[in-house]
Design goal:
With 172 residues, the chain is mostly beta strands. It has a single domain, classed as Roll (BH3618-like). It is 11% helix and 31% strand. The strands form 3 sheets. Strands 4, 5, 6, 7, 9, 10, 11, 12 and 13 form a 9-stranded antiparallel sheet that branches. The protein has a two-stranded antiparallel sheet with strand order 1-2. It has a two-stranded antiparallel ribbon with strand order 3-8. A hairpin with a 6-residue loop joins β6 and β7. It is globular.
Length: 172
């Protein structure tokens, strides 16, 4: 409680705190976010700041990959993947400002995706672990978070991590 000038008691606003997000890396049979979900990136994505709304969807034929397509710009789309499928020891420490902007109250509400760069070969396909997309699955607000001071790679080769998932159906 905070005392205001008129001496009445006023509830003090709750400040968001930093949040550590970790997950069990068991490969999931479903996507980490509902198909056809619309996500609002109020700040845009670096390089695409003017685009705020994206639709995320997946296709069983290319699971665990998902697609994130701009709603109002048909030529803008990204391939992404659940960060916790990519590497067993991945964790994200979100600054308090990010948890507040996204309205995250629990790590269970956070979906963490990595943007994927498709290489010339499947073995050269990489995921950006340093700058994940963090989405609040409850309110569908998202932000690309740059993990300053992190030694996580921007180009993490993901083929080895995906072998249990796609190895039986996709051959290099």
């Amino acid at each position: 409680m905070v005392q205001c000038e008129c001496e009445c008691a006023v509830e003090s606003p709750v400040r968001a705190s930093a949040m550590e997000i970790r997950r069990d890396n068991a490969l999931r049979s479903v996507y980490p976010i509902e198909p056809e979900t619309l996500v609002e990136f109020a700040r845009g994505i670096p390089g695409f700041e003017q685009i705020a709304q994206y639709r995320i969807h997946g296709l069983d034929a290319v699971r665990p990959f998902m697609f994130m397509e701009a709603v109002r710009s048909e030529n803008v789309s990204f391939v992404c993947i659940d960060a916790f499928v990519v590497t067993r020891d991945y964790s994200v420490r979100l600054p308090a400002a990010v948890t507040e902007r996204l309205g995250l109250d629990s790590e269970d509400d956070a979906v963490v995706l990595c943007l994927v760069t498709i290489g010339d070969t499947v073995q050269s396909t990489t995921a950006n672990l340093m700058c994940p997309l963090v989405i609040n699955r409850r309110n569908r607000r998202g932000e690309q978070v740059i993990l300053d001071g992190s030694d996580l790679p921007v180009r993490y080769a993901i083929w080895q991590a995906l072998q249990p998932t796609v190895g039986a159906t996709v051959r290099p």
